[in-house]
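Figure 6 in text form: structure in, sequence out.
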């Protein structure tokens, strides 16, 4: 057993101290957001933001959770995130795996077709007409899911990872009589957990943050996703403050600053809690796009 020298121990201590300080530096902004969201509007305007709540109040959260609309929005966003991520991963992997096989016919043409969509877009008007008129998905919750099922960037990440899988595994399985579908689900996917977790997290964050599509295509308040609803809450709060200033209402101030911070906590909280469970796979998959381009 190799004995650790004093210089190695000192270096390790220095590395731990530096990493700990860096971790604290990264955590402080989030703690400040939570603390300031629990502070009164007047204390923020007077003293600025702080890591300890000043004049503790739940006014911002009361404004956000004043009725059950926010809970419905949470339900919509959770449904869109879970269902959208699951279907998007299925479609992405089903497209990426065949494109990773050398013997596939017309592989280069299909790759170019997918890559072409990353460079050029039909435009907002064409996209609006396609979704609302021809596909008939206006005011449907599926408008938040179906148009975003395949991300070319994520597809190429998965394809590159599948290309790094040893081809001898598939060849051995074929000799034993396995077909491509069996090889894909029983052999390739189980050893692709780092890539699946990484790309799945990318999809989940994209679906969780959906708001622009809701603004364009959804008018039913019961189908508003969380991000779009909190944006409307903030716009209404700003409008209320502007109106009260114009008509000189005494002591009428909507806590817009603390509400902005509270909406940040409300919207990113679930994703932050999900990340620790995927961290070990996510770290392994950070280099997924660097293998066998």
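Output sequence:
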């Amino acid at each position: 057993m190799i004995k650790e020298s004093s210089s190695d121990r000192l270096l390790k201590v220095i590395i731990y101290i530096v990493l700990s300080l860096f971790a604290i530096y990264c955590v402080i902004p989030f703690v400040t957001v939570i603390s300031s969201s629990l502070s009164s509007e007047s204390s923020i305007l007077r003293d600025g933001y702080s890591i300890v709540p000043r004049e503790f109040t739940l006014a911002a959260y009361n404004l956000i959770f004043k009725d059950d609309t926010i809970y419905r929005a949470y339900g919509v966003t959770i449904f869109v995130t879970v269902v959208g991520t699951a279907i998007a991963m299925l479609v992405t992997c089903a497209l990426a795996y065949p494109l990773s096989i050398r013997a596939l016919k017309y592989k280069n043409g299909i790759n170019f077709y997918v890559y072409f969509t990353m460079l050029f877009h039909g435009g907002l008007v064409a996209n609006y007409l396609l979704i609302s008129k021809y596909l008939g998905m206006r005011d449907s919750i599926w408008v938040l899911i179906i148009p975003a099922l395949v991300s070319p960037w994520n597809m190429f990440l998965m394809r590159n990872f599948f290309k790094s899988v040893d081809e001898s595994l598939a060849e051995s399985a074929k000799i034993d009589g396995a077909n491509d579908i069996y090889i894909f689900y029983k052999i390739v996917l189980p050893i692709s957990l780092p890539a699946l977790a990484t790309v799945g997290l990318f999809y989940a964050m994209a679906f969780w943050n959906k708001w622009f599509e809701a603004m364009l295509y959804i008018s039913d308040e019961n189908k508003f996703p969380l991000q779009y609803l909190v944006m409307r809450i903030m716009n209404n709060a700003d409008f209320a403050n502007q109106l009260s200033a114009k008509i000189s209402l005494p002591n009428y101030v909507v806590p817009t600053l603390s509400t902005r911070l509270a909406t940040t906590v409300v919207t990113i909280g679930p994703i932050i809690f999900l990340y620790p469970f995927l961290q070990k796979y996510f770290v392994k998959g950070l280099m997924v796009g660097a293998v066998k381009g």
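Caption detail: The first helix runs from residue 6 to 37.
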